[in-house]
Amino acid sequence: MTKVPKKSDSNLKSEEKLEGVEGTKSERPPHYSWSTRHLLLVVALLITVALVIVLSTAPFAAILGPSHHALAAALHGLFSFLFLVVSTVGLYLAFRLFTGRIRSFPDLQLASTTMAVLSLITIVFGNWIYIAYRAKDPKAPRTYFLENMPEVHKVFFEFKEFAALFTLPLSVAAAFILWRYGSEILDKTWTRKAVSILIALNFFYLMIAFGLGAAVAKLKGI
Amino acid sequence: MSNQVKTTSSQRIPNGAAIAAYLSAMIGLLVLSLSALLSEISEPMKNWIHEVGKLWILGAEGIGPYSGKETLGLVGWLFSWLILNKVLRKKELSGGFWLVIFLVGIGIATTLIWPPIWAIFGATH
């Protein structure tokens, strides 16, 4: 009778054969024993080298523009874009949570926490460039809009600046509930739905702020 | 390790803490939207709200009254969370009812930050 090895057999993993590879793990040449950690180290090294070359040679001042607030504006745009990406992932996971068919619950916990952090960072950079936006300067966007197309500032920008703030408490509340209740939330229908709605609302207000912000920046940059 | 979510019946946390979290977010946003409205319809309120922002936000002089509106919204949110969490965390409440209240509150807050609405309240915006 053939002995069937159990999954708990500690020797099984180290002695398993890989398709197309000769010998067991202990017999293989060293390059076959490279782990994911080694791969990540190599990728990190390559990225570091690329960054050093780019950062030391690229004319960033030219692409950012001559404004004193160019860096703050770029960072605000960068973080809001990252926020949008993570919120899109969060929205999909929230939909799965809403329907009660989520399989990657820890991913939703991570996404909601990242959303909350990115919301805060984006708001902080938004505050910073708002100083330049409303500066008492004929070239400042607010002055420009009030003189040439007042409704852009008085309706769209004003709405956008408040809608952006909505994302922080909504995303923080969602993250808090997900961590506080853990997977127990799946047994609580209304709490599960509440978190899904919080994340959907976060996405809605982010879309308003992002879309209007991009439109305003296109009309008159800082 | 599988990502499949498993639950056990032994760990039951009352839903009060969750309700406190989203109701406090609603309260914070209502405070924010009300401060936005008040700032538009009253010059003394606008100045006071700006002074509130100057208390702690860097560059509040340049940011203007918006800094005070952010501050009031933040205080309203966190302070109400503190109180609601203390009161509700051990209670099991009707999740559906409070979720509806939350959505209505968010709807009101959103309406109040829509600038054309301010004119109804006498803003000369």
Structural class of the helix and strand makeup of chain B? mainly alpha
Unreliable stretches of chain A, pLDDT < 50, 5 or more residues? 1-16
Structural class call of chain A reads mainly alpha
Major β-sheet profile of chain A? none
As a whole number of angstroms, the C-alpha radius of gyration of chain A is 25 Å
**Low-confidence runs of chain B:** 1-9
Figure out the total of helices of chain B.
6
What does this protein look like?
The complex is a heterodimer of chains A (222) and B (125). Chain A is mostly helical. Chain A is built from eight helices and no strands. In chain A, helix 4 runs antiparallel to helix 5 (105-133), helix 6 packs across helix 7 and helix 7 runs antiparallel to helix 8. The longest helix of chain A is centred in the last third of the chain and has 32 residues, at 150-181. The radius of gyration of chain A is 25 Å and the shape is flat. The model of chain A is unreliable at 1-16 (pLDDT under 50). With 125 residues, chain B is mostly helical. In chain B, helix 1 (16-41) packs across helix 2. Mean pLDDT of chain B is 92; it is low at 1-9. The chains are: A mainly alpha (222), B mainly alpha (125). Chains A and B meet through helix 5, helix 7 and helix 8 of A and helix 1, helix 4 and helix 5 of B.
